[in-house]
Structures are given as structure tokens and as C-alpha cells.
Design goal:
There is one protein chain. The chain is an alpha/beta fold and about 300 residues long. The chain has a domain of about 70 residues: ACT domain (Alpha-Beta Plaits, 2-Layer Sandwich), CATH 3.30.70. The chain is built from 13 helices and twelve strands. The strands form three sheets. The protein has a six-stranded parallel β-sheet, sandwiched between helices. Strands 2-3-1-4 form a four-stranded antiparallel β-sheet. It has a two-stranded antiparallel sheet with strand order 8-9. A hairpin with a 3-residue loop joins strand 2 and strand 3. The longest helix has 15 residues.
């Protein structure tokens, strides 16, 4: 048995009943269930549709996301999340580079690396090298003034943790930022690269070994083994080429507003919704979402 989920952006809900019922009828699905009016609906299906890609493409023009996945085991016990352009709206290294006056060059390298055109480790080393001499205090300034959280992230983590789940933030970015993001959103742990400093300034070097694509896969293996769960119990989310390994290994790998080369290889694609889409994909209704303050209380 499979579950078909249709979603739209909660900030601009546009999912109508006629669209849901038309697809349900065309594919011979079960009764449609609304997880949130205008935002998300789902129905069951016995056989995978051979018209999925065409329908998915058609719905994209109407700002509607579409996913089909096995019904069994879709509620996950662990979230493994990328940080830059996933849990937050920015690439931290690009923001640091902008302050350092090398923003254009670094953004170009970042874009190519995230699209899989450049080796991640080499691209990171080159970009960090351009930050040499930058005051370390700028990190706190950038976090406070330039970083915004992707809508739905706190609810995603609070809801999964309230159901007994575990949340890990694993980033090719820097611990200077993951520590703050993890604390703010309620992650149980975080992993990232270290920016080396000397006399209050960045040295232009990254602590070795560099955490890239393979390190994210290792995090998936190590954390699931420690928790005594399987990789099938994990929902992973990311947007860049260095996320592909964990997205393809996890039980549910979600490409969120991802680069085209990444989305093309992911199991699940969300181009219009926010992070609450990951809850809808697991079958949570909006009425079941846990607010962060409630979870912490």
C-alpha cells in the first residue's frame, strides 16, 4: 500500500478539493484525508502510478508538491537535517564572506559546490581561505543580523521529539553556527566543521577532517547504531550535492527547495512547502503539530 500526499506552501495555501479528488479518481485511490485545509491532503493507493512524473510536473506549475511513498513505516524515529538553506534560509559562509568583502567570489563557489559541479572539500577549503584575517566576533554578528530560520523547523522537531524521535543537525558548515541553530530549534546533537582561529581572527583554515558528503553518511550510520534503530527509521532533509548520500540512504530522503541536480536524485521533493511538509509526509495532521514551547514545557 502507498500513500499519495499533495502539499502547498502554508504561507500561500492553494490546494483545492477538486484537484485532490481529480487525482484520486484518476489513480483509483482511497478516500482523501485532509491534513490541513488548503495545505495538505493524502489518499492511499494500491499500485504505483506510471504517470507520476507527468502529474508531478503539471502540479509544479500550480505550486503544488506531490509525493508517493510506502504507507508502512512512514512515521520516522529520527530526523537528520542539513543546516544551510535547509533549517536556515542562508549559506553561513556566504554571509561571512559578504562581511569580509569577498561575497561574490564565495557565493559563486558555493553555488557550484552545492550543485555538485565542484569537489566539496576543495571548494570549502578555498572559500574558507578567503576569510583569513576576519574578526571571529563577526560570527555572532552574522548570526544575529543575517540568519533566518526556515518556517516550520521548530514545529517539525518538537512534534517528532514529542513522539519519541531524535533530531540531529549535520552540516558541511561550521560548529560556530550549528551550535546556535541546534540550541534554538531543539536538536539533540549537531555536527559540522570547525573554523580555526588565532588571536581572535580566522586563520583561513578548516579543522580536519572536513565534514562533507561521506561524513553525513557516517553520521547516519553512527547515530542510528547508537540509538538502536535502522536507517529506514530516519527522515533526512537537505538541499545540496553533499546531502545526496544521506538522502539516498535514509528511509525518507527529502530534497527541500533543492538544486535541480539534487532534486532529480532524491526520493521525495518539496519545492513549495516549508519544513512542516516533512510532518505531512509522515501523516501528521496540522492539529497534531507540537509547538516548541509546549514540547519544552
Amino acid at each position: 500500500m502507498y500513500i499519495v500526499t499533495l502539499l502547498s506552501n502554508p504561507a500561500q495555501p492553494c490546494l483545492d478539493r477538486d484537484s485532490v479528488e481529480a487525482l484520486r479518481n484518476a489513480w483509483g485511490g482511497g478516500t482523501a484525508q485532509w491534513l490541513s485545509p488548503g495545505e495538505a491532503a493524502e489518499f492511499s493507493l494500491e499500485i504505483l502510478p506510471d504517470t507520476f512524473e507527468q502529474v508531478w510536473s503539471d502540479l509544479q506549475t500550480r505550486a503544488i508538491d506531490l509525493a508517493v511513498q510506502p504507507a508502512q513505516g512512514r512515521r520516522k524515529r529520527m530526523l537528520l537535517a542539513d543546516m544551510d538553506s535547509t533549517m536556515i534560509g542562508q549559506e553561513c559562509i556566504d554571509e561571512l564572506a559578504d562581511v569580509a568583502g569577498v561575497g561574490a567570489r564565495v557565493k559563486e563557489i558555493t553555488a557550484r559546490a552545492m550543485n555538485g559541479e565542484l569537489d566539496f572539500d576543495g571548494a570549502l577549503t578555498e572559500r574558507v581561505g578567503l576569510l583569513k584575517g576576519l574578526d571571529a566576533e563577526v560570527i555572532d554578528q552574522v548570526f544575529a543580523q543575517r540568519i533566518s530560520f526556515t518556517p516550520g523547523g521548530a514545529e517539525l522537531i518538537a512534534t517528532m521529539k514529542a513522539a519519541g524521535g531524535y533530531a540531529a543537525l549535520v552540516s558541511g558548515g561550521f560548529t560556530s553556527f550549528t551550535s546556535k541553530v541546534a540550541a534554538h530549534l531543539g536538536f539533540d546533537e549537531h555536527r559540522a566543521n570547525g573554523l580555526l582561529q588565532e588571536d581572535g581572527k580566522l586563520t583561513g583554515q578548516v579543522a580536519l577532517p572536513i565534514l562533507g558528503r561521506e561524513a553525513k553518511v557516517s553520521a547516519l550510520e553512527e547515530i542510528t547504531a547508537r540509538l538502536g534503530i535502522s536507517e529506514a527509521d530516519v527522515m533526512a532533509v537537505g538541499d545540496g550535492a553533499n546531502d545526496l548520500g544521506m538522502l539516498q540512504r535514509a528511509g525518507a530522503g527529502v530534497a527541500l527547495h533543492a538544486k535541480p541536480a539534487v532534486a532529480a536524485q532524491a526520493k521525495l521533493r518539496i519545492n513549495h512547502g516549508d519544513l512542516t511538509a516533512l510532518l505531512y509526509l509522515q501523516g501528521y495532521a496540522k492539529s497534531e503539530f507540537v509547538q516548541p514551547s509546549a514540547a519544552q514545557g
